[in-house]
Design brief:
It comes from SAR86 cluster bacterium. By secondary structure, the protein is an alpha/beta fold. The protein is built from 15 helices and eight strands. The chain has a single domain, classed as Cytosolic phospholipase A2 catalytic domain, CATH 3.40.1090. Helices cover about 45% and strands about 15% of the residues. Helix 2 crosses helix 15. The longest helix is centred in the last third of the chain and has 26 residues.
Length: about 300
Amino acid sequence: MRRFLESFYPPKKKKVVLSFDGGGVRAIAAVVFLKQLEIASGKKIFDIFDFFIGTSAGGINALNIAGRKIDCFELEDFWSKENLTQTMSKSFWDTASFLQTKPKYDGIGKTDVLLDYFADQSLGEAKKPVAVLAYDVEKRKPRLLSSYGSPGIKMVSAASATSAAPIYYSTQEIDDGSWLIDGGIVANNPSLLGYSEAKKLFPKHEIKVFSIGTGINRRKINGKNSVKWGALNWFNHDILGIMLETSIFDEIASDIMGQNYLRVNSSTGLVNRRMDDISEVNLERIHLMGMEWWSEFGEDTLEFLNV
């Protein structure tokens, strides 16, 4: 009976989206997880997925895979301690204070690292469709930079803009004169946007979305104590983490896509909630978080992706 029905209504072919959350240095956990997926499947992440989307550091991951066609061993090298140190060089802050008048980092080191890897490559030169989310501060609206919608934008501009996290980095002017900041302020988990874009790109296909996070800070905030907090106290108690919370997006995505959506994420546990902690201890904890994800979600991921 199934074969008879399929002769009249052939099943839709599937396209699979890989969606990366933002989260600064914690985005390395996604790379660790995906490296295990490559080992287990014998396939490159580039070959498994059809469309890549990301926010902030997750956007940089997406651009590296789709733009440079690299495997996760090479992507892990991108996040080397040397590159991270250069990216976060020349801090203007003596101590992390919400009251500082300048961004924490000058961004020069980050731009140099991006140029080393992307050179003069434009989004339109990506090997597969890719998009990253930013926010236009002058137009006061989200901005999607993509290989198909804005092919003339340079990869370096797109990577700089999507990762221009307020407080940490300055607003970025991209090639078309727009001024952009980190898209995490509107959708740190871009899964729903990835699903919507993929429906447009592949209208005759069934869309599946594999979403990978960067950990969620679940440390309890004392409600009674928070009553009297001002800007500095809220900053010290992870107001940025609260603003970038992704659980509601995960719930909506799950409701809309059902079995065509799989999410990998967990509590940050011992990982520092700060997005720029590149100490050896914290980097090791991030690596362990990625490995723990593989232990917990690896089999489900292989089944979901049918690899």
